[in-house]
Amino acid sequence: MIRLDTKAKPLMPDSPLRATAVLTVRNEGAFLLEWLAHHRAVGFSDFLVFSNDCDDGTEKILDHMQDMGVLTHISNDGPYDKSGIQFTALKTADKHKLVKKADWLLCLDIDEFVNIHTGDGTLDALFATLPHADAITLTWRLFGNADTVRFSDRPLTDQFQRSAPDVIHWPWRAAMFKTLYRNNGLYRKLGVHRPRAPRDEADLESYRWFDGSGRELDGDFKTKRLFSNYGQNNFAHVQLNHYPLGAMESFILKSDRGRVNHADLPIAIDYWIERNYNQVEDTSISRYRHARDALMTQWLQDEKLEKLHKRAVQWRHERFAKLMRQDPFRALFSRLMMAAPSRVISAGTARTLTGFSMLGQHDVKTETRTKEAD
């Protein structure tokens, strides 16, 4: 039975395990309630949430939900490490008691939703299915825009149910993963996609990694790999539903906000094309709907929280209207409406593109060695 309590408690009534999700957000107050309710239904016991430079009242929502006992909020207002805003937050998280006392850890973004297919859909069920796992790679399943133009205050997981197929061959970004891992001290640092800085590489041999279909992983998966092997189904037991686009209106706001870890790169039509897959219908995440809705209804009985949520929703509408008065954002919005859904590339074409990519990497390495020799 899935817990509906708002306070941070063990995964299930008889489970001694604590699982902590670490989240960083900016101007995403309208999406917080769904994300938190969903992941509490999945079984996460604790949430450590960092916010920075918000205009939509996100910080006020997080502060209030902290007072309600739902999460722990830390303002991540800088100065920032040279690696960027998110890594600055993760360095702070490394020292936090919620991370130190957690049995399992997972770093997520607000547009990522854990979706477990085994048992009753909880973390306990996943751990029972993969009892020898110390780390489990949760591979992205990209959910496209489904030709949705306007943002509405409805759960993302209900609105967007068209996704990439089970097997995709290109691009490699479509097979990126986040790592759910046992916090036994082997890895010293949190990472955006994976744990970092193993204390003793000799101990990696006994620390066992598995993918979302239960295949055991080795080699660079334990040290640096960020994406699963593509051209195979990685979702048999668990997947990470990824909603990087949302409504076209929301994508404009995302472009305005910019990238978290690569501030020098714009979020434009190329970003859209690499992620707008709508080939199949996937409603598997609906198994959590009842528990999610019960929690959201319970939380929204708090009048202050309800007002803060509505204010965040209203901010999104007002910000979009303001951006539409600027030609670059208006042009992007029109291009989104004209663009067709992304096509799936065949295995043969993907091999050709991979070959070109490897040649390009070889050229870069050769050029680097030449410069170092000079």
Topology:
Layout: E1 19-25, H1 32-42, E2 46-51, H2 58-67, E3 72-75, H3 85-94, H4 97-100, E4 104-108, E5 112-116, H5 123-129, E6 135-142, H6 156-159, E7 162-163, E8 177-182, E9 187-189, E10 196-198, E11 209-210, E12 216-217, E13 238-242, H7 248-257, H8 269-273, E14 280-281, H9 289-299, H10 303-323, H11 327-338, H12 347-373
Parallel strand pairs: 1-2, 1-4, 2-3, 6-11, 6-13
Antiparallel strand pairs: 4-8, 5-13, 6-8, 7-14, 9-10, 11-12
Helix pairs in contact: 1-9, 2-10, 7-10, 7-11
Instruction: Give helix % range.
Output: 25-40%
The biggest beta sheet reads:
10 strands, mixed
Q: Unreliable segments (pLDDT under 50, ≥5 consecutive)? A: 1-13
- Dominant shape: globular
The fraction of residues assigned to DSSP E strands is 15-25%
| Class based on secondary structure composition and strand pairing | alpha/beta
Number of beta strands: 14
User: Which series of helices and strands comes N to C?
Assistant: EHEHEHHEEHEHEEEEEEEHHEHHHH
Radius of gyration: 21 Å
For the residues shown, what is the average pLDDT? 93
Number of helices: 12
Q: How far is it from the N-terminal to the C-terminal residue, by CA?
A: 66 Å
What is the count of structural domains? 1
Can you tell me about this structure?
This protein is α/β, with parallel strands linked by helices. It has one domain. Helices cover 35% and strands 16% of the residues. The chain contains twelve helices and 14 strands. The strands form three sheets. Strands 1, 2, 3, 4, 5, 6, 8, 11, 12 and 13 form a ten-stranded mixed beta sheet that branches. It has a two-stranded antiparallel sheet with strand order 7-14. A two-stranded antiparallel sheet has the order 9-10. Helix 1 links the parallel strand 1 and strand 2. Helix 1 crosses helix 9, helix 7 crosses helix 10 and helix 7 packs across helix 11. The longest helix is centred in the last third of the chain and has 27 residues.
